[in-house]
Design goal:
This protein is an all-beta fold and 614 residues long. The protein has 4 domains: 354 residues, Neuraminidase, CATH 2.120.10; 75 residues, Elongation Factor Tu (Ef-tu), domain 3, CATH 2.40.30; 97 residues, Immunoglobulins (Immunoglobulin-like); 67 residues. 2% of the residues lie in helices and 48% in strands. The chain is built from 2 helices and 47 strands. It has a 6-stranded antiparallel β-barrel with strand order 19-20-23-22-21-25. A hairpin with a 4-residue loop joins β16 and β17. It starts with a helix and ends with a strand.
């Protein structure tokens, strides 16, 4: 795949399928026609009580549909004029976690042949929108690899992504330009001083947060870890990274062969094809229910990747497996129950997942069976599939496999307030809803992991999966975490007639004086139903500010507690006169709070400061 524009030509003249084909049993799919939609690039549910799915289109118009498929009057929002040649236009969208209070929604758009912008729209009481430009001057060549990913992280910052503009711009770690990068800004569009290349008036681009990406078309926040997942459309390989501050994906020197010092893809697959690796003579060994394979050349396999083994002399080793480890370039392992045995020959072939990774989301609800919680679902444009990745207890990828097929130019997927999964294609006016048909009595909550602002209000949606025999009251209680996070409604009533109607739980998070985020756990319970929990992260809007939050002295040692950010180097300095400064210690923070020490004798007057060093 050279670009999404190239992919469009592959689908010229292909009829739009009326329904997608669900690969995995236990689900029911419903297609909803949304008239007057074309070239959809993003779908997101508003985090309020309206249950509206916003449908962003490349030409700058945004439609809205309720979770039950009812289409609302449109256009709700019309952005423009935009530059829409090639892959340009409205290509990214996300909501402010404090939407119930400020009614903000953000858009990533191309406004000319040489400029992209991030816009902020505010929904007014009469349904109209006011628009302002948050970030100007983001690069484009007016062609492909424009990126367009846009999310708000658990730190309350806005993350956005831009590709290499189809011309290798910004590659190999170039810190002067935002191309081939993931950027981060405050929600008012200003730069974050903790960004790894922030140098104020210096030559770096202060927005850069991570680098080395070919075309990071979509971003997703992993709700449990806060890691930013980057769906990077590829040249030879489609790559999905979990990125952190300062990480380097290696483009354009590396693609699925990153050496030490670079992040490696958590998920990868060959662009429009498969990899076939020859197994070495005597390169098959089973012991302790693990098969160790040795290949004749570097395999490039990743943990959780689906592999089909064929042609091994002993046929008991042949079959389809998921890679359990890849300790080095020539060896990988899979699980298989069987006796200690050695064999030889054969091939290992990867799965053909597609050729252009697009949008992805973590399933953030309890409407599906427990094994689906926090799975990562990602679209592939060329194959028209939604694929599924599962994780083990250490957050390592456990399996990557097909899930849904038959979507015309699959482009985005999201979790609904009702706990269902919604997805769509760029080339289709259809929004698909996927419902689990495995419906034992259970409480359905969405989102299960809520991100909100301190000082704000947010909503969690609750329903029952099946009709109760009589009225049911679900009680809600905070069972762990910050007492500053509370709910305004402590119980919800469901009847046999209203069990499937989503009801809101409103969560409030009090503002506080520290610079740290707050967390809380809530438990929902009722007779005859298993308890369910949901988790709240309330980010501190002042988090981007470096500051002292505590000081104490013991045995000639003064300890300073400093609000910082992980992976930031902080220096503690002191001065008797605010002119001459002495450095005492410099540490690299591993969390958002760090302790710095001064072991020198007490003086009559001494001023202290903490500052970021590079």
């Amino acid at each position: 795949m050279k670009s999404l524009l190239f992919c469009l030509s592959l689908f010229a003249g292909v009829a739009i399928a009326a329904d997608a084909a669900v690969v995995v049993s236990g689900f029911l799919e419903s297609p909803f026609q949304v008239p007057n939609t074309s070239q959809t690039t993003d779908i997101e549910f508003a985090p309020d009580t309206s249950r509206r799915l916003f449908i962003a289109q490349k030409d700058g118009t945004v439609r809205a549909m309720l979770q039950n498929g009812t289409v609302l009057p449109s256009p709700n929002i019309s952005l423009g004029p935009l530059y829409t040649d090639s892959e340009c236009g409205l290509i990214g969208m996300c909501f402010d976690p404090n939407f119930l209070v400020n009614h903000y929604v953000y858009f990533f758009v191309t406004v000319s042949v040489s400029e992209q912008q991030i816009l902020r729209c505010q929904e007014m009481p009469d349904g109209s929108y006011t628009t302002m430009v948050l970030v100007r001057g983001l690069p484009t060549n007016g062609a492909n690899h424009d990126g367009g990913g846009l999310v708000v992280g658990l730190d309350g910052k806005l993350y956005f992504s831009i590709g290499d503009l189809g011309a290798g711009v910004g590659v190999n770690g170039d810190a002067t330009v935002m191309a081939a990068k993931v950027g981060r800004c405050n929600l008012d569009g200003t730069e974050v001083v903790f960004n790894p290349f922030f140098d104020g008036p210096g030559g770096n681009n202060d927005f850069i947060w991570a680098r080395g990406f070919r075309n990071p078309f979509k971003l997703a926040v992993q709700p449990i870890t806060g890691l930013i997942w980057v769906d990077d459309t590829g040249d030879t390989y489609e790559q999905i990274f979990s990125a952190d501050k300062g990480d380097h994906g290696g483009w354009n020197n590396y693609e699925n062969n990153q050496p030490a010092g670079f992040i490696k893809p958590r998920i990868k697959y060959r662009t429009n094809g498969t990899d076939v690796r020859q197994i070495a003579d005597g390169g098959v060994l089973r012991h302790d229910n693990i098969i160790e394979f040795t290949t004749t050349t570097a395999h490039g396999f990743r943990k959780g990747e689906r592999i089909t083994v064929a042609g091994v002399l002993d046929p008991s080793f042949n079959g389809t497996f998921f890679v359990t480890s890849a300790p080095d370039a020539l060896n990988f392992t899979v699980s298989q129950v069987g006796p200690h045995q050695v064999s030889t020959g054969g091939t290992a072939t990867t799965a053909a997942l597609g050729g252009a990774v697009t949008g992805g989301c973590f399933y953030n609800a309890t409407g599906f069976p427990d094994s689906f919680r926090q799975n990562y679902f990602f679209c592939d444009y060329n194959s028209g599939r939604v694929n599924r990745a599962t994780f083990d207890s250490t957050n390592e990828v456990a399996t990557v496999d097909f899930f849904v097929s038959g979507i015309n130019s699959a482009v985005d997927v999201t979790t609904g307030p009702n706990g269902h999964l919604y997805y769509t294609g760029f080339g289709s006016p259809i929004i698909y809803r996927l419902v689990s048909t495995n419906n034992p009595q259970r409480i359905v909550v969405s989102p299960q992991y809520l991100n909100m602002a301190e000082g704000g209000i947010a909503v969690v949606n609750v329903r029952l999966s099946s009709a109760p025999a009589s009225n049911v009251v679900v009680d809600v209680m905070r069972t762990a975490g910050s007492p500053g996070i509370s709910t305004t409604n402590l119980s919800l009533l469901f009847t046999p007639a209203t069990f499937s109607d989503t009801q809101p739980i409103f969560i409030q998070a009090a503002a506080d004086a520290d610079h740290a985020h707050s967390q809380a756990t809530f438990t929902m319970s009722c007779p005859s139903y298993a308890t369910r929990q949901f988790f709240v992260n309330a980010y501190d809007p002042d988090h981007a500010t470096l500051g002292f939050t505590g000081v104490w002295r013991t045995n000639n040692t003064t300890r300073f507690q400093v609000a910082s950010e992980h992976k930031t180097r902080i220096a503690l300095e002191a001065s008797p006169d605010l002119l001459n400064w002495q450095a005492f210690t410099t540490n690299l923070s591993v969390s958002n709070v760090m302790i710095l020490f001064d072991n020198s004798p007490v003086q009559a007057q001494r001023f202290y400061r903490a500052r970021i060093t590079r």
